[in-house]
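Worked example 3. Consider a protein that binds ribulose-5-phosphate.
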Amino acid sequence: MTGDLSPIDKAKFVAARRAADLVEDGMRVGLGTGSTAAWLVRCLGEAVRDDGLKIRGVPTSARTAALAREVGIEVISLDEARWLDITIDGADEFDADLNLIKGGGGALLQEKIVATASDRMVVIADAGKEVEALGAFPLPAEVIPFGWQTTRALIEETLVGMDVLGRDITLRMNGDRPFVTDEGNHILDLHLRRIGNPRQLALVLNQLPGVVENGLFLDICDTVVVGHGDGRVELR
Ligand code: 5RP
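Given these inputs, the predicted complex is written out as structure tokens:
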């Protein structure tokens, strides 16, 4: 499954493999999105196939749903599951309080809904994702397409009063067209460089009409499994 991996892919793989050990027979499992989460889905698929692990997975994106089915994981919807035992997902940044920036893969809305509906959220990440303060990675905000430029202007205005270092906002593109999420929305990437008060920012952003959700995951993650390029794994 792994072949010759670069140090970063090895770090993602070992984190995913360690987190897969947390999944037990009969669990309903939230399956994250992104390259690290894809390793997790492959590891779980292997356990289903080779060890007879019986789980039902709730994917956080169409991409993950396709991969989960391909590797033999039974896929159900969140509404069928109602509640999940565990969600395992990647992240773009995490800090010492296990707060996160997510959404680099554009799946933040479904990821946040699924993680919030879980007894436990475990993040899998390479060590490079750990930061002192969130915000070097652009913060994604999912916005509805109607009037997105007006929403961007509103966010720009709102950022003036916020404890951030940068205020550029870009529309995420997919080639020469705006990126479209699984829910049919667009993503604005907020280049803030440093977020002084993530809690205040998350609340204020979600109050703006047009903003569906933001990529700050605060008080949601319980554990981060950190992988290193030399194969070491640490739990936070
Ligand atoms: C997708 C996400 C991903 O978990 C995040 O972007 C990390 O991705 P990767 O594992 O590929 O580095 O939030 O919306």
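Take a moment to read the result before moving on. The helical segments are 7-20, 35-51, 62-70, 78-81, 108-116, 148-159, 198-207. The mean pLDDT is 97.
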